[in-house]
Amino acid sequence: MSIHSAELVHEHGASIPTFAKVWFTLLALTGGEVFLAYEQVPTLIMLTVLIGLSVIKAALIIAYFMHMKFERLSLFLTLFPMLIFCVVLMLIFLGDALRLPGMRPGA
Amino acid sequence: MSSQVSAVASTSLWEGGGSPYRTNSKKFGMWLFIISDSLTFSAMLFAYTYCRVSNPDWPKPFHFSPSIIFSSVMTFCLLTSSLTMVMAVHAMNRGRRKAAGLWILGTMAGGAGFVVLHLNEWMNLINNEHVTPFQNPWGVPLFGGTFFALTGLHMTHVIIGLIYLAIVCQAVVRGKFKAEDVEVAGLYWHFVDLVWMFIFPLVYLMSAKI
What is the pTM (predicted TM-score) of this model? Predict the structure, then answer.
């Protein structure tokens, strides 16, 4: 098989308009995040919404730009559940961070 | 007949049998690297967020102009460079090497723009706000340490990505690399973009001066 035909075999995934739509969506979500930063919102709610939007953006990048949507499910299941599990384990300590300000003298 | 059977058996034996992921080893290797690097960035982002949330006196040094504007433009640069990288992979899959090289150059331009703006932002913090990795005027030394460690590690990844893309670009134009090599380089570049999608809101927007 020549190099040229090998390159053609690898063609898969979304079309250019789909990539453009994902790019616009990512830009719009970023704009939403900047807008939210200047709203008077409690820290915890702001943190939750910003992380939520970031997770959506990350999912779009992984699914479309990194082609994970078009890979085999076995690849996704090998890589991501353990990553998500480890990140969730880290988040267990976040409750401690929220409690600390209230434990200060005079708080 | 028997020679055909033995030939098939030896081929499947020595070629590793079925591919459970139906992907090449370079791509799978890059995915494993990305997952391990994700854990590094996750730990650092979590450490920054922990410090930020647990400290009500956490500094908010990022003015709308220039910090938030600059970091928003940096986000635009990285997102656009991801799109051009996708276009490079798309062109390479169709065997259009020259177009792929140009798209990779476009990606590098976005990455270079990001680095220039980021260094400018660092200089602004160091010279105007007097923030260093060890001290700052607000009496929260952890701010400088965590900020420069996190953004510095990310900027190092961007610079390494630029070098990687430069190597891939010249090889593509010379007709040396295959489409899968461009795709693997693209995976790395998208990962760098992905990490910034968390750094931008958690570091800049959470500490924007209102």
Answer: 0.88
Q: Are residues B67 and B121 in contact, defined by beta-carbon separation less than 8 angstroms? A: yes
Mutate to test the interface with B, among A54, A80, A96, A98 (most CBs of B within 10 A): A54
**Is A71 an 8 Å CB contact of chain B?**
yes
SS3 A103: helix
* Other residues' Cβ atoms within 10 Å of the Cβ of residue B80: 20
Ordered structural domains, chain B, with CATH: 25-207 (1.20.120.80)
Q: Please give the residue range of the domain that contains residue A19.
A: 14-70
Question: Nearest-CA neighbor of B200 among B69, B71, B36?
Answer: B71
Q: Read off the pLDDT of residues B59-110 as tens digits, 9 standing for 90 and up.
A: 988 988 888 999 999 999 999 999 999 999 999 999 999 999 999 999 999 9
Which of B21, B76, B191 faces A74 most closely, judged by CB atoms? B21
ipTM of the predicted structure?
0.88
